[in-house]
Specification:
The chain is an alpha+beta fold. The protein has helices at 2-26, 30-35, 58-78, 83-97, and strands spanning 40-42, 47-48, 103-106, 109-112. It has four helices and four strands. Helix 3 (58-78) packs across helix 4 (83-97). The chain is globular. The termini are far apart.
């Protein structure tokens, strides 16, 4: 009986150790998601999953898009602009800072930024 409990305890400790070392590897930030082709910028100022990419970054994309929409709405209200205009302007600013090779969607077409 004691042996089964010892084995169960060792397994539980091993699982916790593995979970503790593996979890940070799966913590995804925007820069990493972009550089790994898991997230791309759309010309409306939001993020999306590029073609052929797995949905690994969907939670991150949703979270960032929600924050961006809230900020765009504030700017639009303060400046009496349509929300879409603010998104488009922000997209242009974001695009200028993106490294080459980043997925971008322009007028519905996905491409990798050249420069």
């Amino acid at each position: 009986m004691r042996t089964i409990q010892q084995i169960a305890l060792k397994i539980a400790v091993a699982v916790m150790m593995i979970a503790g070392t593996v979890s940070p590897a799966f913590a995804l930030d925007l820069e990493t998601a972009r550089s790994n082709g898991l997230a791309g910028e759309v010309d409306n100022g939001l993020l999306a999953i590029p073609p052929g990419a797995p949905a690994d970054a969907q939670e991150l994309i949703t979270s960032i898009n929600n924050s961006r929409r809230a900020e765009y709405a504030k700017v639009a209200a303060q400046n009496n602009l349509p929300l879409e205009a603010v998104g488009t302007m922000m997209s242009q600013k974001i695009y200028g800072r993106l490294p080459a090779g980043t997925w971008v969607q322009v007028q519905g077409k996905w491409i990798k930024k050249a420069r």
